[in-house]
Structures are given as structure tokens and as C-alpha cells.
Amino acid sequence: MALALLSRLLPGSEYLTHELLLSCVFRLEFLPERTSGGPEAADFSDQLSLGSSRVPRCGQGTLLAQACQDLPSIRNCYLTHCSPARASLLASQALHRGELQRVPTLLLPMPMEPLLPTDWPFLPLIRLYHRASDTPSGLSPTDTMGTAMRVLQWVLVLESWRPQALWAVPPAARLARLMCVFLVDSELFRESPVQHLVAALLAQLCQPQVLPNLNLDCPLPGLTSFPDLYANFLDHFEAVSFGDHLFGALVLLPLQRRFSVTLRLALFGEHVGALRALSLPLTQLPVSLECYTVPPEDNLALLQLYFRTLVTGALRSRWCPVLYAVAVAHVNSFIFSQDPQSSDEVKAARRSMLQKTWLLADEGLRQHLLHYKLPNSTLPEGFELYSQLPPLRQHYLQRLTSTVLQNGVSET
Length: 412
What we know:
With about 400 residues, this protein is mostly helical. Helix content is about 55%, strand content about 0%.
């Protein structure tokens, strides 16, 4: 009840907001899961989901138990960042106590919006991010670490035991808030407690019942543009990540095929250098590899970028296994597509790309692009290969490459 009420109180109720934060929301008595097997159940759930979840688990039960112990510090953090201004608080307190002589006016402010936003559990983290953006010299590491830790702990408690408190915050907005942890500075995300908490929250977002609701193409509260945030995220990843796997997992998550091609073009068109640092193993990919390979890519500009990074060696399996498998899958699908509805430009690009693939000096890449069969993240390359091309593909290849010596290879 306190959680539901907190994001609905209007201006004039500053005193009630403060009292809820001070006395109700963070009380251990209101978290009976703490003593009724909640942490143990979380650990057991981790063990059961090891076969289906690809996100490394880090003892969610232990993290929840520690969060319960740290509730006083969590409460202090939210009192610092979410309490109303003192003048408004005193006026509201006097009004609720009937001390009218201390009330400057009996007219309440126009109720434009609640005192706290629906995503108030993330509010200290959002303010930390904006302060960091406005302070080139950087923030105090102690304050930064403490605030981020308390927010992540509280959000994990809500995600695990009070998910209805976050129903008003779309999964995409939660992902954007997690990304802010990495944008605060160049060191915060390296701290072990932060890594464990972010990994646990990422696992929550990648659950089968949550992932389909992750929609990055719709407007998000408090965010002008997810592509702009993602471009900033890529800049920071390229500059400071040094191949951090958790950072890489968050970079890869928005690149799923169902999301806007703008995000994939941002990486392959403007941040190719980041590919060298995206060393996340296939076995640690947050979601199924098929989320990236199905359906086949239909954006010609992106397909040409995939092909270019492969043939120039900017994208290799040994340092970027996930996107190597993705690029090979889409290029293979494109060069063997025989859609009669394709435009002349697409047909010419397809023919040129197949001819260039056939002439590749890199025999390994040539074999992968021509003989790709289907994704399989249990294999080192991330996909299975045909031992021999199917007859239709073999015939198509022979027909298109028979004119290479006569006509040359056109530019892709």
C-alpha cells in the first residue's frame, strides 16, 4: 500500500511523502520474504534457470539478504534524494497537523503531476547521472558508489519481491536506467558489488516473461531518444570498457533483430572500433542467438557494413564471437536469397557480394559465408555449417559465378 501510494501523492502532501519514506517503505517488517525463505528461493530459482538463462548468476539470494541488512542505508539514500524541499515539507506538515497559523497559504498548488515520478526507485541514480554529466571533473567516488549501490539494491528487492511496484516503469526504461550506471564515470561499473547487482537486474530483464515486453522503439518516460542514449553508451564503451563482459552484454542487448536498425547502424557504421572490445562469449549472451539472426536482415546499408567488416577483418570470431555469428548469418541469407520482388539495386548488390565471397582469399571466412546453416551458440563459431551446399544453392552459386571472369566483379 505504501509503495502504491508513494507515486500518487500530489503537491500539498509533501509531509505524507516524507513520512512514508521515513517510516513505512523501508521497514523490514514489510518484507516478510526476508525471514520466510525469500533469499533461499531466489538462489534455488537461479539454479533451476541455469540451463535456460545465459546471464551469469551471482547469488541473487545473497544479494537480497544483503539488501535487507542495508535497508537503513537504503532509506537514508532515498530520503536524501527524494525528500521534498524543506519549506514545502514544513508547510505540508503544519497543514496535516491542523497548525493553521504555520501555514503560509491554504491554497494548494495546481496538481500538475505527483510529487514523485513513477520511476522514483531510480531517481537517485538518474540524478547521479545528470550530476556526472554536468561535472566534467567527476564526482566523489565514495558518494557515487554509495548511491548507485543503494539504488540497485532497492530495485532488486522490488523486482524480486514487489514487481507490481515497477509495473508503471516499462522494461525499456529500466534498461535505460541500468545503462546510466555505466555512464556515470569510467570506474563505477568495475566495482564488484555493482557488477553483481547489475548482472542480477539484467537477468530479471531477460526472463522469458519480461523480454517480449522490452520495446525500444516507443517513447520512454524521462528519455528524449533511446538511439541518442545508445550512441552515448557506445562512445563510453569504446573509450573505457576494455572488454568488460557485463558492459558488452548491455551493448549487445539492443542489437536484437526486432529493434530499430538505427541501433545496429550506429555500431557498424560509426563505432566499428568497439567491435574489438565486444568479446562477450556466446555462452554469456543474455538472450538466445536467434533473437539476433531471425528474421533475415533486409536493410541493404547494414548488410553491406556487415560484409565490409567481415572481409576487412574488423570483425573476427576470436574477439567478437557474437556479432561475427550474427553478421555471417545475415550475409549468408542475403547472398542466397532469390526473392523476385527485390529491387534492381538489391539484386546487383546480392550478386556482387556473392561473387566477392566466392573469390575471398580467406578460406575460413569464405567457408563460413557460403556454408552457413543455422545458429548454434554451443559451437565455437556460433553456428553449424553444411558439409556440402544444398543443390539449389550450389546451382545458384555456379550460375552467378560463371560470369566472374568475363564481366569482373562489380562494386558492392
